[in-house]
Amino acid sequence: MRVALGVLSVLGAIAFLAIGGGKIVSTATFVDQLGLPAALVVVIGLLEVAGALGLLVGLRVRAIGLAASTGLLLLLLGAVGFHLLRGDLIPAGTSALFLLVVAGALTALHTLLARPVSAARTTTEPAA
């Protein structure tokens, strides 16, 4: 599970850096596509970039990775809901839907790996 978490964290970080950075650099394009205020598009982009960096830091500090993946999950729930309300989930919201699944998987992996190992697994049987 740790390998899956590492791979998914790096790939997710790359995706969120690209998408969030695009919103920051090409704000006007996203304003035209989404009909949102420019300031909101920039804030969303900054949150995505911060989440991407948090995913990378989370490879060393698990609590930050969990916070980043949870924050991205909530952000993407809002994005998917936005596209559902606009009636353009397919095809316009497919990237948000895909990234929602990625953020959900990351949150689940961080949560599973944060659980303490049960006592039954840590005890060893005496030699016969």
Which secondary structure elements does this structure contain, and how are they paired or packed?
Blueprint: H1 2-25, H2 27-34, H3 38-57, H4 62-86, H5 94-114, H6 119-122
Helix pairs in contact: 1-2, 1-3, 1-5, 3-4, 4-5
Task: Walk me through what this model shows.
- This protein has 128 residues and is an all-alpha fold.
- 80% of the residues lie in helices and 0% in strands.
- It has six helices and no strands.
- Helix 3 runs antiparallel to helix 4.
- The protein starts with a helix and ends in a 6-residue tail after the last helix.
- The mean pLDDT is 90.
- Uncertain stretches: none
Counted beta strands: 0
β-strand amount: under 5%
Mean pLDDT reading: 90
Count of alpha and pi helical runs? 6
Q: Could you say which overall geometry the principal axes of the C-alpha atoms support?
A: elongated
Largest sheet: none
* Terminal Cα span: 32 Å
Radius of gyration: 18 Å
The topology string of helices and strands comes to HHHHHH
Q: Helix content range of the residues, please?
A: over 70%
Q: Would you tell me the structural class of the helices and strands?
A: mainly alpha
Q: Which characteristics define this entry?
A:
elongated, 6 helices, about 130 residues, mainly alpha
